[in-house]
Design brief:
505 residues, 5-stranded antiparallel β-sheet, 3 domains, FAD-bd_PCMH_sub1, binds flavin-adenine dinucleotide, Vanillyl-alcohol Oxidase, Chain A, domain 3, cytokinin dehydrogenase activity, Uridine Diphospho-n-acetylenolpyruvylglucosamine Reductase, domain 3, 21 strands, Uridine Diphospho-n-acetylenolpyruvylglucosamine Reductase, domain 2, FAD binding, alpha+beta
Length: 505
């Protein structure tokens, strides 16, 4: 989801001011556990500081201690004590802390560093992998691909944890065909807010299973997930094509996500390039880069259709035939197409190089006031006119990436906690802006204006990775599922200990 040049644009100068604008919580109370629990909480300043911040870099919430568990039994012990002991404290599981608004934090409570429990076991028949909740997706890919298999649904960025994405949804360009990551889990081990460890699946404890998937960490801590595997292709042909016409762009995207495996591609995403942002042309050959930049300047907005087709053997002609046919039927601007032929691992891990570069420039840990929305297909044109043209394009400048791609609702299971629009096809719109101390509030105001516009115009968006501070917004978000969501909380975490940083209960 990162785009190097765009991110660098507005943020270079003010990085060192970061701590002064992260909204801070007051608590620094240290938690002392009884010796009989045999658990060690880390309370050194460096560990506490790390656990107080996240990728969003707009909040700072100080825990009373951090547990680096050596087994899931330790998590269970901690939660039993928190639920039954005299000292009440809340508990937040933390993957990589790549949340945006303190969702993996807890004021004065215990943060559990789930990455201490990373582990991957591929089944003998290679149909699934049992993965510890704190494992990073990049490690799951590395381990499974070595054995010739791979999960089927991916986020754009892989240095996030299995438990973290399953608590949200885990979305990306493969989900139009395979569903989000939460649709590709066979069973889970979950430690509830009462400290009980329960295995769950569609057949066993289904209430917990469906509750936890997209459940924002509210019902239990995922200590193990059984992830569906399939054949790991060797390479990917990765294309970007440019459009100046929004309707042609969305028509082609929607056509691509309706195709089956044999005739279609394996990955579909899209982006917008706007003349008030820095335009990253680096995917195109050097000889075309100025033409691409001019195109954006002349049209104000250019749409990038991004697709990938996986393959194993370059001598088998099928892949080439599919691509040939597709590229001939798509209505991109003639000549504005570029293809990279890359190993499967590199394609999936494509954001890593950008992270490395940003880190080397100290531009990774800046504020990220991101806004992620799902927009129903029938309202995407109104959204484009009202938000993209009338709000985003009218800003003096924008930074970061604007993702824009459709997906299919039939790959989601409505019994899960995750919320999506009520239409067969909906769009993922990721306005992934990077900010500085000077403009973070400005970007947040733009995000608020977008939400207000959608509300006033009746555009039925759902937010992803959202952070509401008012109960009525959560009730509105979950709609008819709110009753079930609160009942599950009473059932599995009655003392409301888990993931308080989500600010739901
Ligand atoms: P954390 O931020 O640590 O935790 C997220 C929430 O889950 C918290 O409430 C936490 O308490 C809870 N939690 C964490 N672990 C567990 C567990 N084991 N059991 C129960 N609850 C748990 N998301 C996508 O879907 N698609 C993308 O393409 C995508 N790209 C991204 C790119 C970048 C550069 C970044 C920074 C994030 C991206 N994300 C994407 C968002 C990502 O899914 C979230 O940040 C998510 O929260 C996972 O991050 P994490 O593992 O660090 O979880």
């Amino acid at each position: 989801m990162a785009n190097l040049r765009l991110m660098i644009t507005l943020i270079t100068v003010l990085v060192y001011l970061l701590p002064s604008f992260a909204k801070s919580s007051e608590s620094t109370k240290v938690i002392t556990l009884p010796k009989s629990l045999n658990l060690t909480l880390l309370t050194d300043p460096s560990t506490i500081s790390t656990a107080s911040h996240d990728y969003g870099n707009v909040t700072a919430v100080t825990p009373g201690g951090v547990l680096c568990p050596s087994s899931s039994a330790e998590i269970s012990r901690l939660l039993r004590y928190a639920a039954n002991g005299d000292t009440i404290f809340q508990v937040a599981a933390r993957g990589q802390g790549h949340s945006l608004n303190g969702q993996a934090s807890v004021s004065g409570g215990v943060v559990i560093n789930m990455t201490c429990l990373a582990d991957i076991t591929v089944s003998e028949d290679k149909e699934y992998a049992d993965v510890a909740g704190g494992t990073l997706w990049v490690d799951v890919l590395r381990e499974t691909a070595e054995q010739g298999v791979s999960p089927v649904s991916w986020t754009d960025y892989l240095h996030i944890s299995v438990g973290g994405t399953l608590s949200n949804a885990g979305i990306g360009g493969q989900m139009f065909r395979n569903g989000p990551q939460i649709s590709n889990v066979l069973e889970l081990d979950v430690i509830t807010g009462k400290g009980e460890t329960l295995a769950c699946s569609p057949q066993l404890n289904p209430e917990l299973f469906y509750g936890v998937l997209g459940g924002l960490g509210q019902f239990g801590i995922i200590s193990r997930a059984r992830i569906v595997l399939n054949h790991a292709p060797k390479r990917a042909k990765w294309f970007k094509m440019l459009y100046s016409d929004f309707t042609a762009f969305t028509k082609d995207q929607e056509s691509l996500i309706s195709m089956n495996n044999d005739t279609g591609v394996d990955y579909v995403e899209g982006q917008q390039l706007m003349s008030n942002g820095i335009v990253d042309t680096s995917f195109f050959p050097p000889s075309d880069q100025s033409k691409v930049a001019d195109l954006v300047k002349n049209h104000s907005i250019i749409y990038v259709l991004e697709v990938a087709k996986y393959y194993d053997d370059p001598t088998v002609p099928t892949t080439g035939q599919v691509i040939d046919k597709l590229t001939k039927t798509l209505s991109y601007l003639p000549g504005f197409i570029s293809m990279h032929d890359v190993p499967y691992f590199d394609f999936l891990n494509r954001v890593q190089a950008e992270e490395d570069k940003l880190r080397s420039l100290a531009l990774w840990e800046v504020p990220h006031p991101w806004l992620n929305l799902y927009v129903p297909k029938t309202q995407i044109l109104d959204f484009h006119n009202g938000v993209v043209k009338d709000i985003l394009l009218k800003q003096n400048s924008t930074s970061g990436v604007a993702l824009f791609y459709p997906t299919n609702r039939n790959k989601w299971d409505n019994r899960m906690s995750a919320m999506i629009p009520d239409e067969d096809v909906f769009y993922v719109v990721g306005l992934l802006q990077s900010a500085s101390s000077q403009n973070v509030q400005e970007v947040e105001s733009v995000n608020e204006a977008i939400i207000s516009f959608c509300k006033d115009s009746g555009i039925k968006i759902k937010q992803y990775l959202m952070h509401f501070t008012r109960k009525e917004d959560w009730v509105g978000h979950f709609g008819s599922k709110w009753g079930a969501f609160s009942k599950r909380k009473d059932l599995f975490d009655p003392k409301k200990l888990l993931s308080p940083g989500q600010d739901i209960f």
